[in-house]
Amino acid sequence: MSKSTFASAVGIVGNALLFVIKIIVGVLFNSIALISDAFNSFTDILASTVVYISIRVARKSADETHPFGHHRAEPIASLVVAIFAGIVGFEIIRASAFRLIAGGEFIKGILPMLILIITIVIKLLLYIYTMSVWRKAKSTALYAQAIDHRNDILVSGSALLGVVGAYLGYPYLDSVAGLVIGIWIIGAGFRIAKDNMKYLMGATAPKEITDKITKKAMTVKEVKRINEIRAHYVGTLLQIEIHISVDRNLTIYRAHTIGKKCQKMIEAMPEVDYCFVHIDPIIKARPH
Questions:
Q1: Cα gap 181→41, rounded to integer Å
Q2: Which CATH class is domain 207-282?
C-alpha cells in the first residue's frame, strides 16, 4: 500500500470513529450543531472512500482502453467529494433553519464540548499528516481530502461555539452554528469542484509551467528557438506538444536525437505525462 492510499485509509477510519461518537452524543444531548457535525463526518467517510479508490485507479498503468493512463480518476473523485458536500450542506441548513424557527430543548452537558474538542485535535493531526503525504505524492484527490480535514477543524470549531453558547443559556446559538456549518460545507464543496474542473475539461497549463518547459528545451544546445507550445491537462498531468527549430542542415538522425533529448527532459517534469516534439528546420542561428 502506497503512502497516498494509506493516508486516505487513515481518513476513512478516523472519520468513521468520529461519526459514531458525534451522532450518539448529539442525539443524547439534542444538539443540532453536533448532529450536523456528525453528518459532516459521514460525508467525509464517503469522500475518503472515493479518494481511496480513485488513488488506486489513478496508479494503474496505461492499457488498450486507456492509452494515456487513468489520471482522470483523481479529479473525478474530487468532484464526487464536492457533490457529497453540497448535498449534506443543504440538508444541514434545512434542519438548522427548522430548528431555529420551531425551537427545541438543548440538554446541557460537558460531554458535547469534550467530543468537539477531541474532534478538532484529531482533525488537526489528520490534516498535518495528509498534507505531509500530499507534498510528496502531489495527488489532487489527497489534497481535496487534506483541505476537507482543515475545513472540518473550522466546522467543529463553529459547532463548539454553538454548544458552548447553548450551555451558557443561549440555545439559538446551537442552531445558528448548524447554519454556519451547512453554508461552510457547501462553499468548500464548490471550491473543490472549481479547482478540479480544469483537469476534467482539458484546461491549458499555467504560464509558469510553459515557461519552465521552454527553458528546459532551450538548454539543449542544438535547439535554436521554440516556435510553439501547446499544453493541456489529461487528468492531473499535462500532455505537451512543442515545436522546436534546429539547423536545417542536420541529418535526420541527429535531428531525431535532439527531439528525443527534449522529450525526455520535459517528461521528467513531475507535472508532465507525455511530450510530443515537432522539429522545424531553420537557417538563422540563435543569438548569443
A1: 12
A2: alpha beta
The correct answer on CATH 2.30.110.10 for the domain covering 3-200 is no
What span, in angstroms and rounded, lies between the C-alpha atoms of 217 and 133? 31
Q: What DSSP string describes 215-283?
A: HHHHTSTT--EEEEEEEEEETTEEEEEEEEEEETTS-HHHHHHHHHHHHHHHHTSTTEEEEEEEEEEES
Q: Could you identify the residue written with the cell 540563435?
A: 286
Question: What is the strand order of the sheet 237-247 is part of?
Answer: 225-234, 237-247, 272-282
Contact call for residues 189 and 83 (beta carbons, < 8 A): yes
Nearest CA among 131, 193, 185 for reference residue 156: 185
What 3-state class would DSSP assign to 71?
A: coil
For 113, 173, 236, 255, 275, the CA distances from 259, given in Å and listed in that order, are 63, 65, 25, 6, 10
- Give the pLDDT of the chain (288 residues) as one tens digit per residue: 677 788 888 888 888 888 898 889 888 888 777 887 788 788 778 777 877 777 777 777 766 776 666 667 777 777 877 887 787 778 778 777 876 776 656 567 788 888 889 889 998 998 999 899 888 877 777 787 787 788 778 777 877 877 787 788 777 777 787 788 788 878 878 887 887 777 777 778 888 999 999 999 999 988 999 999 999 887 777 889 999 999 988 999 999 999 999 999 999 998 888 899 999 998 655 554
Ranges in the chain annotated CATH 1.20.1510.10: 3-200
- Report the distance separating Cα 257 and Cα 262, nearest Å: 9
